[in-house]
Design goal:
The chain is of the alpha+beta class and 226 residues long. It has one domain: q2cbj1_9rhob like domain (Jelly Rolls). The radius of gyration is 17 Å and the shape is globular. The protein is built from five helices and 15 strands.
Length: 226
């Protein structure tokens, strides 16, 4: 894999965006909601009132706006919850799947899948470059609790195969993203990332919220709100 040059690392950390009390309130709201939890967390949280309200909080919108340079459209929220009871390893990858309102036949999109009634398609780099994720840390992310690892600047390489991803990681290395409680990690879905298993039992809960520059990504391509 050849070297790449870009000043934008593809991720940023902002500390102290939310207070500890706000984080605890969100955790409590999610605990009391009726959404179905998976082993690693919970999908499709835009239907939870408190989460939907947070996605439109001025502080988060300002961060997202700086990345996509227009009014952000929040379309997906997912809780990742790593603990002693739910401890997992995430291999190096890019976030390529987007929720859409319906299937369509356009080159560069697919394979297709369906999760809890929501249609998903792997998207091309042209669409993914219009998306940014804000990872709201409801707990501190430390070296011991399986933090996110990223390969800086790798988001400019486009959509890669598993073999190409492995080559980039070996050639360029990675950094751990340590974020305090209430902090936000902003990242491109195309940045190569992974996480290790936690070495401690304390939870690491992250609310992963995605924004696009528009609900429409082209003729006949409409993002689903999940």
């Amino acid at each position: 894999m050849t070297a790449y040059q870009t000043q934008d690392p593809g991720f940023r950390v902002a500390s102290g965006v939310l207070s500890a009390e706000e984080c605890d309130t969100i955790v409590s709201s999610l605990s009391n909601s009726k959404v179905t939890r998976g082993r690693a967390g919970t999908r499709h949280l835009m239907s939870v009132r408190e989460v939907a309200r947070l996605t439109r909080d001025r502080r988060l919108l300002d961060i997202a706006r700086r990345e996509i340079r227009t009014e952000p459209f929040p379309f997906r929220a997912t809780l990742f919850e790593k603990s002693g009871q739910a401890n997992w390893l995430v291999v190096w990858h890019q976030d390529r799947a987007l929720p859409v309102r319906e299937r369509f036949g356009l080159a560069g999109w697919g394979p297709w899948s369906e999760k809890a009634g929501v249609v998903y398609a792997h998207a091309p780099a042209s669409a993914l470059s219009r998306v940014v994720a804000l990872r709201v840390h409801l707990d501190a992310s430390t070296t011991d609790n399986g933090p996110l690892r990223v390969v800086p600047h790798s988001h400019v390489l486009g959509v890669l195969t598993d073999e190409e991803i492995g080559s980039v990681v070996r050639e360029h290395g990675f950094v751990e993203c340590l974020v305090p409680k209430g902090g936000i990690l902003t990242m491109s879905p195309l940045i190569i990332h992974s996480s290790s298993k936690a070495r401690i039992y304390a939870p690491r809960r992250v609310l992963h919220i995605e924004y696009a520059d528009s609900q429409s990504l082209g003729l006949g391509i409409e993002l689903a709100v999940a």
